[in-house]
Specification:
Number of domains: 2
CATH topology of the largest domain: Chitinase A, domain 3
CATH class of the largest domain: Alpha Beta
Organism: Kitasatospora kazusensis
Largest sheet: 6 strands, antiparallel
InterPro entries: PPIase_dom_sf, PPIase_FKBP_dom
Radius of gyration: 22 Å
Number of helices: 2
EC number: 5.2.1.8
Enzyme class: isomerase
GO molecular function, one term: isomerase activity
Length: about 280
């Protein structure tokens, strides 16, 4: 069995036993157990990792290396190799896991040339489970309502919040409006990060809901500040803090403009409530 030195939250040193060859068995061993929540299937888990190719003896890229960042994915979601996908299930946040991954649980008979893993190599991973966000997560706390004339928000616990557009309604604002309903004390959101969010969107014109993460699987992972979202989200979420619930009133110029999108008519002002659950 390989040995691991170093503390949780820092790059591990992995030592391969001298004279031994990989056994071909998939092994998951807890090096140190955390005291956080237990990771369940479908949770958005954030993992830092160190890796070594057992077959070649080479150290592989690590999320602790300069310019790298943790891996964010849904546990047992089938998006990554089984060494990541399955080995975190039932483990606690704050745990360090040693994973010995034969080809079937790593990169198979083809290997991974980009990572320097040869065809059929066994890979050893050390995974630090940094965070886990269940799909039904929401932001709790007393809501600070926006000023009169702005949409108001009612918290519904584990269900989507209710957004009430001002009666009438009055003419929508021409510029982006941002209101922090619950202020989180987490890290500040930076452009280029991937966020885990819950969100609900309604039309300013009639208060009708047109989209909600609660209606299609719960918390979603979205990249902010790179142009993959509407401009109102990029401008409204960068600089906020993890743990915040934010209300955005997005004018057409920062939304979908003069093009209709499914149930959103052209030139619509949009109102969103967004819970920022994680940023990686």
């Amino acid at each position: 069995m390989p040995t691991v030195t170093g503390d949780f939250g820092s790059k591990a040193a992995i030592t391969i036993p001298a004279g031994q060859q990989p056994s071909g068995q998939y092994v998951v061993h807890t090096v140190s157990e955390g005291d956080g929540a237990t990771v369940a299937k479908g949770d958005w888990v954030t993992v830092n990792y160190t890796a070594k190719d057992w077959t070649s003896g080479k150290d592989l890229a690590s999320s602790y290396d300069s310019g790298q960042k943790p891996q964010l994915y849904q546990a047992a979601g089938g998006q990554l190799v089984p060494a990541f996908d399955q080995s975190v299930l039932g483990k606690k946040v704050g745990s360090r896991q040693l994973v010995v991954a034969p080809p079937a649980a790593a990169f198979g008979a083809q290997g991974n040339s980009a990572l320097g893993v040869g065809a059929g190599d066994t890979v050893v991973f050390v995974l630090d489970i940094m965070e886990s966000v269940p799909q039904d997560s929401t932001i709790a706390g007393t809501i600070t309502q926006p000023p009169a004339g702005s949409p108001q928000v009612k918290d519904n616990g584990k269900a989507a919040p209710t957004i009430t557009v001002p009666p009438g309604p009055p003419a929508p604002p021409a510029d982006l409006q941002k209101f922090v309903l619950v202020k989180g004390d987490g890290k500040q959101v930076q452009s280029g990060q991937t966020l885990v969010v819950q969100y609900t969107g309604v039309l300013w014109s009639n208060g009708q809901q047109f989209d909600s993460s609660w209606s299609h699987g719960g918390a979603q992972a979205l990249q902010v500040g790179t142009g993959s979202l509407i401009k109102g989200w990029d401008q409204g979420l960068v600089g906020q803090t993890v743990g915040s619930r934010v209300l955005l009133v997005v004018p057409p110029s920062l939304g979908y403009g003069d093009k209709a999108q499914s149930s959103v008519p052209a030139n619509s002002t949009l109102v969103f409530v967004i819970d920022i659950l994680e940023a990686v």
